[in-house]
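Changelog-adjacent note: as of this version, every example in the card shows the full chain rather than a window. The one below runs 260 residues end to end.
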Amino acid sequence: MCHHFFVSIRYKNRVFFTWNRTTEELQLFLGRLQKNYSHIQIEISFGQRIHYFNAQIENRQGHLYTCVYHASNVPKYCLPYVINPTKLNHCLWFRSALIRAIRFCSNYLDFLEEQNYLAMTCLTNGYSRNFIETQLQHFYLRFNAEKIRYCLDQTVYERLRQRCLDLIQDQRIKTKKLRELEDQEYLLNFSYSYDYGSYFQFNQKFHQLWSQYLKHDEQLSHKDTKINLNPKQIFSLNTLFAGEKPSDEFYQTLLKKTYL
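Full-length structure tokens:
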């Protein structure tokens, strides 16, 4: 009896799947696929090495090998375009790019190479070594791996990688729960103007007052109700520039006062 192992991954209009039967059977399968869906334009490519978006996936002597793929037609060492604040957004990009690298790279040497590539990208675009070091420290501290940063081998790297994958899975579960709460109208989002002081003290006082005055409300005091408080700073250049422009009458009055 011949066993068939098939793994399929789909994202938008692209599909990636594994195949462990003969090439002839694969061609027959793809032919039937195009015939049954003739109204859809299908482009097919297959081989032992493929590029699936930003990932390179390869079959190396029966072992799955993956790493980050950089297209040859894309300029190297280019930071993504972001809207102000630029430095903050590039901090977030650097850390998310490291998480993407550890997810994609099955070998620790590929991960270290991608880490160096990200560092060179920042240096090329004017960021300092201190900026890069701060982002790397934040990344390794997040996964409780600061002690193994300089002694990575394949075994240590796989433990670090598993921590990363576990954290991502936990975040997916939390996101799913938040969506369920939002669908049931148990997730409440509030924004408030922030001037100065402690976020923690304000949030703590808010929850105390919320529990005190709304404890008899069946919906708002439900055990599954979750409140998100989002502070918004009001003193910024954007606020200043967004202010109303003085009228012509204001300038005329000012000129009269100047010449009197």
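Structural remarks: The chain has three domains: 8-68, 86-177, 185-241.
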